[in-house]
Amino acid sequence: DIQMTQSPSSVSASVGDRVTITCRASQGISSWLAWYQQKPGKAPKLLIYAASSLQSGVPSRFSGSGSGTDFTLTISSLQPEDFATYYCQQANSFPLVTFGPGTKVDIK
Amino acid sequence: EVQLLESGGNLVQPGGSLRLSCAASGFTFSSYAMSWVRQAPGKGLEWVSGISGSGISTYYADSVKGRFTISRDNSKNTLYLQMNGLRAEDTAVYYCAKDLGYCSSTSCPPDWYFDLWGRGTLVTVSS
Q1: Residues in chain B closer than 8 A to A45 (CB atoms)
Q2: What pLDDT score does B104 carry?
Q3: What rounded mean pLDDT belongs to chain A?
Q4: Which residues of B touch A (CB under 8 A)?
Q5: Closest by alpha carbon to A29, among A89, A103, A100, A86?
Q6: CB contact under 8 A, B50 and A97
């Protein structure tokens, strides 16, 4: 089974900061990776799919990159509504879907 | 409005059964694969099961294989999860989620990117 790890597990940042979250797969998954944002008590929201494709309606300050085993999610200028937990998810190891453990972004 | 609405969550004893439903609206339900994803209290996300748009193909996480059954009724725009042999570790909020990719035939594999989620329904397994 493919294992997903994320770093850091949490990050404290200020409005306007550039934030980068890393996701690593235990084996190559090409570009079969998604990123989700989840706020407390709410369902996850798809931000990025296929490693770098921005989901419709998602602000352009969110971007994704990477392929193979190493991926990043970047928020170019953190906004107040971006404080949340972010999960990566691999979609390659058919038929198993695996999420990373999450990265919490909170206010410094 | 495009939405998913789960129901059926409840408190159940270990070894018991429960059936979750997810009512879809606002999109062509039969053209999209669907999944169930769960989240234990204070924990991360865990994919549970998925089903193709036609219902022909089903997929399960090892943790629920043989105990849970996913199905769908495209005439009712509804997704189901039959859960048997429930364990304490099945306690979670269960979300239904729609695949991003549109499928125009009966044989499209799911893309496993989830672009629409319901609000979730809580399943508690405890004596």
Answers
A1: 117
A2: 80
A3: 95
A4: 35, 37, 44-47, 50, 59-62, 95, 100, 109, 111-115, 117-120
A5: A89
A6: yes
Q: Which of these, A20, A57, A90, lies nearest to B114 by C-alpha position?
A: A90
For residues B9 and B94, the answer to whether their CB atoms sit within 8 Å is yes
Place of tokens 């989700």: A36
Phi, psi of A75 (to 5 degrees): -110, 115
pLDDT tens-digit profile, chain B (127 residues): 999 999 999 999 999 999 999 999 999 999 999 999 999 999 999 999 999 999 999 999 999 999 999 999 999 999 999 999 999 999 999 999 999 998 887 777 888 999 999 999 999 999 9
> Which of B62, B108, B114, B121 would you mutate first to test chain A, the one with the most A CBs within 10 A?
B114
Nearest to B19 by CA among B79, B65, B59, B73: B79
Distance between CA atoms of residues A80 and A66, nearest Å: 26
| AA letter at A48 | I
Sequence-separated (6 or more) residues with CB below 8 Å from residue B17 = B82, B83, B84, B85, B86
Query: Which phi and psi angles does B93 have, rounded to 5°?
Result: -85, 130
- Write down the residue that tokens 């036609």 correspond to: B54
What is the pLDDT, as a whole number, of residue B47? 96
Spell out which residues of chain A touch residue B46, defining contact as CB-CB under 8 Å: 99
Min Cα distance B22 → chain A (Å) is 14
